[in-house]
Structures are given as structure tokens and as C-alpha cells.
Amino acid sequence: AQSVTQLGSHVSVSEGALVLLRCNYSSSVPPYLFWYVQYPNQGLQLLLKYTSAATLVKGINGFEAEFKKSETSFHLTKPSAHMSDAAEYFCAVTYSGGSNYKLTFGKGTLLTVNP
Amino acid sequence: NAGVTQTPKFQVLKTGQSMTLQCAQDMNHEYMSWYRQDPGMGLRLIHYSVGAGITDQGEVPNGYNVSRSTTEDFPLRLLSAAPSQTSVYFCASRRPGQGASGANVLTFGAGSRLTVL
Fold first, then answer.
1. Quick one: closest CA in A to B30, which residue?
2. Residue B90: helix, strand or coil by DSSP?
3. B103 → closest Cβ in A41, A49, A90
4. Residue A104 to residue B94, Cβ atoms within 8 A
5. d(CA B61, CA B38)
6. Which of B59, B101, B104, B112 is the best mutation test for A, with the most CBs of A within 10 A?
7. Can you tell me the distance from the alpha carbon of B48 to that of A97, in angstroms, rounded to the nearest whole number?
8. Which residues in chain A are contacts of B42 at CB distance < 8 A?
9. Does A95 touch chain B (CB under 8 A)?
10. Is B102 strand, coil or helix?
11. B1-42: per-residue pLDDT in tens?
12. For residue A66, is pLDDT > 70?
């Protein structure tokens, strides 16, 4: 079964500091990987996705993620945190073959940005 | 505005009551799904549909029913609500397309917060 593990349920950074949110996936076939963001009292919005093209994926709001097959990782980074980045972030995985309608989410990482 | 619309936004039920959470999308998306979100659990798939007349179970289907009579609508029914069904429910849909170009980019509704007493 497909799965993702997000390391750290809560990450706190200072404004202007590097943001690093960790995601590892389990897979025996090539995955599609996603990062979604959820602002308070809202639904989820797509930040970026990896679909087997470039391993470094750039998303909205200055975020990017790098697919590393050898490490089965897809960590999300942003060079300089902004107060508006405070939200919950979800990593998700699915696969290109078989029943690829099912998107499996990690448990989420709550990002706090301190002034 | 185009998108996924969920109603109601908030609902309080007593144990044993029934209700339906409504979900509608106007993007002609074939695929629709329901997730529940609980603290520390992420989002878990309840049921999904790949088109009108076709539904299937997700990870946590027990206690929920769905139907898909039209492309636009995908209601979620709780026949006999239990406190364990207290959660935030999200409906999400996806445009057609396989492979990398259409790889499972879900559009989410704003959510329905359900409390079962």
C-alpha cells in the first residue's frame, strides 16, 4: 500500500528563516507526489506536484521540493519564511499505474512563523 | 465562481440521527471524493467516484453511504451518526486525464464541520 510519512507534526521558524518540511514515501513503483497547503478554516490548495519530469519542482509562493529516489523523499523548502506561510502542510502520494485515483495524505505538519 | 461547493458548513447532530452532506462541482470533473480530516490523522479517504453511477470505498467507508446520479453531485450520507464521526469533511474533485498531465490534482471544497453529540 502506498503511504507517506511527514516528520514533525509541528515546525516553528522565525520570519526570514529557512523552511524545511520533511516527507518520505513508500513505493515499489514510480510515484506521483504532491504538497498541499491548508490555511485556517479553509480547504486544501495545491502547492506543487512531482510527476516524473524534473526532480526539482517549483510551486507557488516561493516553495519548492526535490524528489530524491535514493532517499524516497520529497521535502518541501522555502528560503525565507513569511508570516503568511503559517498553515498546515500535507504531503500526498499516488501512482501512475493501476488505481491511480486514490491520493494518500500524510498526517500533516503545522508550520508556525514567529516574528 | 467555478469550484467545489459543500453544504452545510457546520452541523450538529445527536447520536443516531441521519443527515446528508452535499457536494457539487461545476467543472465537469469525472472523479469526486470525500475525505475526513481529524487532528493528527491527516485526510482519510471515505468514498470516491470515477463517474456517474460508479462509486467505490476508500480507507474509512464504514458508517457512510454515497451515490453518484449526476456528474455534478456527490452527496455523503450518514445513516445513524456516531460521536466517532465528529470531524471535518472535505469533498474534492479531479479533472479527467491520466498520466503526468492530469496527475490527480484535486480541487477541494471549503469543508463541512460536523459534531455528533
1. A101
2. strand
3. A49
4. no
5. 15
6. B104
7. 18
8. 90, 105-108
9. no
10. helix
11. 679 999 999 999 999 999 999 999 999 888 899 999 998 889
12. yes
What is the C-alpha to C-alpha distance for residues A70 and A53, in angstroms, rounded to an integer?
16
Grid cell 450520507 is found at B77
Copy the grid coordinates of residue A67: 524528489
In whole angstroms, what is the distance from residue A83 CA to residue B86 CA?
Answer: 31
- Encode pLDDT of A36-50 as tens digits: 999 988 889 999 999
Question: For cell 515499489, what's the residue?
Answer: A28
Determine the residue of chain B that is closest to A42 in CA distance. B110
* DSSP per position, A59-107: -GGG-EEEEETTTTEEEEEESS--GGG-EEEEEEEEESSSSTTPPEE--
